[in-house]
């Protein structure tokens, strides 16, 4: 009987340990030491894709008005550090080091619930509201891209931004892994501003949209003011062959010029066309 009692006590002790182990959860763990991504990804370390597609022709993200998402915009804590998300990204600029993320995270949910696509022009920031659009300049080679920020990170004190594989490729930072960058938010505050606010922000291009020609310069100047307000793009009135030409521009990228041209054709300027200079 004593042996039987000892076995019963041992069994009870084992059961107590088992129950204690089951009751332990990440919610009871110290936040300071907790890895929010532990066990989430199939790869332990990030890496380059084995057979990546050609991303030379992947276009920049096209800024447009989007309401901030319901997910990913509340205060949060990672590795013992607390972060408060900005109410708006309007006017925000920042300079620092950027890194990139790839295969390990590909296909998994970003912080606002969308799947991460390393072949898109996207990125992660600690406190910008999601989604946000930003122009990223590699200060080491002056290459630029526009990305859509839909994720949180990087959680390293010496980095301000993670960019996708495609964005890192276009910025020329894949080999080195990090680069010193400047981030400028491209803020689109309303549906009306969506079509061309980014074109105004990128006034280094040489594309113009020819709208109308007239001998009445004063009339064209008045039209120009209204069009600048409507499309949020600069205008110019040029003299040519005893006439004056009203044009929208400059617009930095041809695909943006094409989109704006389609818009103005549907809004009173069916004879509009693009002028390349």
UniProtKB/TrEMBL annotation:
EC number, UniProt record: 4.2.2.-
UniProt-annotated location(s): Cell membrane
Name assigned to this protein: Endolytic peptidoglycan transglycosylase RlpA
First-listed, main subcellular location of the protein, grouped into a coarse class: membrane
Function, in words: Lytic transglycosylase with a strong preference for naked glycan strands that lack stem peptides.
Region feature Disordered, mapped onto this chain: 25-69
Domain of life: Bacteria
NCBIfam families for this protein: rlpA
First-tier enzyme category under EC: lyase
Keyword check for Protease: no
Family: Belongs to the RlpA family.
Signal peptide: 1-20
């Amino acid at each position: 009987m004593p042996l039987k009692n000892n076995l019963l006590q041992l069994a009870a002790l084992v059961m107590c340990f088992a129950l204690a182990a089951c009751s332990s959860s990440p919610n009871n763990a110290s936040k300071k030491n907790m890895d929010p991504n532990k066990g989430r990804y199939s790869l332990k370390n990030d890496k380059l894709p084995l057979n990546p597609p050609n991303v030379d022709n992947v276009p920049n993200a096209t800024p447009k008005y989007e309401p901030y998402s319901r997910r990913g915009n509340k205060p949060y804590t990672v590795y013992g550090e607390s972060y408060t998300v900005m109410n708006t990204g309007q006017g925000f600029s920042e300079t620092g080091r950027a890194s990139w993320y790839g295969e390990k995270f590909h296909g998994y949910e970003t912080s606002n619930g969308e799947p991460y696509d390393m072949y898109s022009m996207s990125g992660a920031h600690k406190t910008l509201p999601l989604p946000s659009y930003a122009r990223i300049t590699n200060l080491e080679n002056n290459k630029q891209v526009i990305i859509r920020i839909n994720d949180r990170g990087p959680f390293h004190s010496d980095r301000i931004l993670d960019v996708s594989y495609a964005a890192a490729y276009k910025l020329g930072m894949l080999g080195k892994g990090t680069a010193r960058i400047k981030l400028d938010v491209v803020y689109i505050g309303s549906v009306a501003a969506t079509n061309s606010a980014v074109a105004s922000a990128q006034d280094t291009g040489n594309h113009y949209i020819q709208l109308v020609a007239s001998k009445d310069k004063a009339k064209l100047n008045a039209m120009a003011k209204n069009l600048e307000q409507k499309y949020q793009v600069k205008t110019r009135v040029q003299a040519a062959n005893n006439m004056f030409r009203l044009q929208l521009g400059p617009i930095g990228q041809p695909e943006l010029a094409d989109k704006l041209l389609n818009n103005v054709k549907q809004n009173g300027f069916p004879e509009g066309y693009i002028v390349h200079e």
